[in-house]
Amino acid sequence: MIKKYFFPSLLLITLFMACQDETFGPVIQVGNPPSFTSPSGGSSFVITEDKAQASFGTFTWTPVEYGFQAAVSYNLEVDLASSNFGDPVSLGITNTTNMSVINDKINGILLGKGIGGGVKTTMAARVTATVNPDVAPVVSEPLTFDVTPYEAEIVYAVLHVPGNYQGWNPADDLTVIYDQKNNGKYEGFINFPDPNTEFKFTDGPSWDVNYGDTGADGTLDANGDNIFAAEAGYYRLKVDKTALTYSMLRTDWGLIGSATPAGWDADQNMTYDPATGIWSITLDLVAGEIKFRANDDWAVNLGDNDANKKMEYDGSNIVIDEAGNYTIELILNVPVYTYTVTKN
Fold first, then answer.
1. Domain final residue, candidates 232, 251, 270
2. Residue 335 belongs to what domain range?
3. Which of 197, 207, 282, 340 satisfies CB 3.0 to 4.6 Å to 327 for a cystine?
4. Cα(66)–Cα(68) distance, rounded to whole angstroms?
5. Proportion of the chain in helix, strand, coil states, percent, rounded to 5
6. Poorest-confidence range of 86-90, 101-105, 248-252, 329-333?
7. From CA 78, how far away is CA 126, in angstroms rounded?
8. Based on the structure, what is the number of domains in the chain?
9. Confidence band (pLDDT; 50, 70, 90) for 5?
10. Beta bridge mates, 278
11. Whether 331 contacts 278, CB under 8 Å
């Protein structure tokens, strides 16, 4: 009988000792999320041009405690309060619990979101704390405050797009895409006249900081391989510089709407002029409405919410007041997409 139970007993002792020796790593215990300590909620700021480079203020917040010494990254974001962080702009990422911002940065964000000079607007800020990719981020409650910007010409940050289609010249100011909303997300349209186009993105008019795509997976790599466009055509290029991702979409543009000969059922194809970079069409219209859309599909369409010739994706229909023969132009090689409607 002794022999019968010797090995099971030995196994139990071994397992017990193994359990005794097992060492566990630190356990993450997320306490309270970060909370703003300044500025005070409901504060009001008026930005003037003569103070553009002065300090808007310092955002400070309480730290997040994870139960052990951790390197926490804090991402400070702002948006219009009415947008509920639907289109946030990152002011920066830091390992500290404060961040200073200059007036010009906040002013540019508001102008980029269509807020006019002298218009008091409520903004919201939030802080997102991240410790590692396997742990869900912790987000603060929003802080709201009022800002009145000043009117100024918007200077858009750009990414240059050198390639074999333009002689690999990063200093060419005509082949750039724009940070339209001052949020690190760049977009623009560029014509590739020939198939098998290769190109890259550069931070400036030189090769000092350039991005390609090693592996052709839609992820940007510093000094990476050339990006390849197999077909000739007019491409929308988008780059998220924070996430280091990009996309490209070949587009052909048309006009559609109740004012056109086919109504809302079919596009009237526009013609691209490579000399001017403008799409145009001349046709007879009746009183009604029109919109622009790409590739005979509603996935990418442009309208005009404020009837100010500045277009938005999925924007409002454009009104044609009276019947006649019209020339209509679509201009996409600029930071803010626009159009003209001329009665002949």
1. 251
2. 253-343
3. 282
4. 6
5. 10, 45, 45
6. 86-90
7. 7
8. 3
9. very low
10. 273, 331
11. yes
Residue 2 within any structural domain of the chain: no
* Strand partners for 146: 44, 122
Residue 67 lies in a domain: yes
CB 96 within 8 A of CB 60: no
Q: Are 242 and 255 in contact (CB under 8 A)?
A: no
CATH number of the domain within which 257 lies:
2.60.40.3620
What is the tens place of the pLDDT at every residue in 34-90?
999 999 999 999 999 999 999 999 999 999 987 767 789 999 999 999 999 988 999
The amino acid sitting at 319 is V
In the chain, pLDDT over 90 holds for what percent of residues? 77
Q: How far apart are CA 33 and CA 99, in angstroms?
A: 17
User: In the chain, what is the straight-line distance between the N-terminal and C-terminal CA atoms, in Å?
Assistant: 110
Tens digit of pLDDT for each residue in 216-243? 999 999 999 999 999 999 999 999 998 9
Give me the CATH number covering residue 229.
2.60.40.10
Specify the DSSP element, H or E, that contains 325.
strand 324-331
208 and 312 assigned to the same domain? no
Residues 204 and 288 in one domain: no
Residues 244 and 284 in one domain: no
pTM to 2 decimals? 0.72
Question: CB burial class (10 A; 0-12, 13-18, 19+) of residue 250?
Answer: middle
What is the C-alpha radius of gyration for the chain, rounded to an integer number of angstroms? 27
